[in-house]
Design goal:
The protein is mainly beta. The protein has one domain (16-194): Jelly Rolls (Sandwich), CATH 2.60.120.10. Helix content is 14%, strand content 41%. The strands form 5 sheets. The chain has a 6-stranded antiparallel sheet. The radius of gyration is 17 Å and the shape is globular. The protein starts with a helix and ends in a 5-residue tail after the last strand. The relative contact order is 0.19. The mean pLDDT is 95. The structure holds D-sorbitol-6-phosphate and zinc ion.
Length: 196
């Protein structure tokens, strides 16, 4: 019985700045620079060129609290994808499956606008736009990636089950089948297999 009591967290609150996306009292601040995530963009030459000409750039960052990774708890974090493009492809996150594939996730839009790409291992896919005040439900089994299609930081709150875990390896092998590019002045989803 004592063990169970020890496992109960004490209630707490944090402040998430809606302009910067910074979460006060975060336990972890992840920063993903272009030099480390260049491979996720389809135009490798454009990524190399940007690194050579402009130096490294912060593509996205995440602030998170350290919550026990067990069922019953909820993980939460703020995700900030900066505005920018590699060639005509918008800045985006690496994307991942959950280790426990059936674990779902909620995204609540705070600032900026973007697109959430979701793709199952069998190729089934879905795309949703996310903007301040809107909510995207990412069901289990879907890998998910966020793309900043606007001119300001794309910020959202993510909430997901405590024991979800992140699996980056599976999606890294083949990547997502679709990319989001600027075409005729607006974001367009293109199937990679249709690229020249
Ligand atoms: C976590 C949630 C988000 C992402 C964040 C960064 O389950 O989906 O907070 O971690 O958007 O993306 P990624 O793919 O590098 O974890
Ligand atoms: Zn996730």
């Amino acid at each position: 019985m004592e063990l169970e009591t020890e496992m109960i967290l004490h209630p707490f609150s944090v402040h998430l700045d809606p302009v910067s996306g910074i979460m006060d009292d975060a336990d972890n601040h992840i920063e993903r620079y272009l030099s480390k995530v260049a491979d996720i963009f389809y135009d490798k030459n454009a990524a190399d060129g940007m690194l050579k000409e402009n130096g490294d750039r912060l593509v996205y960052e995440v602030y998170e609290k350290k919550i026990p990774q067990r069922s019953g708890e909820l993980q939460f974090c703020s995700s900030i994808t900066h505005p920018g493009k590699i060639g005509d492809e918008y800045f985006m996150t690496k994307g991942h499956f959950h280790v426990r594939r059936d674990r779902a996730e909620i995204y609540f839009g705070i600032r900026g606008s973007g697109m959430i790409l979701m793709e199952k291992e069998n190729g089934e896919h879905a795309e949703e736009t996310l903007s301040p005040g809107s909510v995207v439900y990412v069901p289990g089994y879907f890998a998910h990636r966020s793309v900043n299609t606007g001119a300001e930081p794309f910020i959202f709150l993510a909430v997901y089950p405590g024991d979800s875990g992140h699996d980056y390896g599976a999606i890294e092998v083949n990547g997502f089948n679709r990319i989001v590019v600027l075409k005729n002045g607006r974001p367009e989803i293109i199937e990679k297999k249709n690229l020249g």
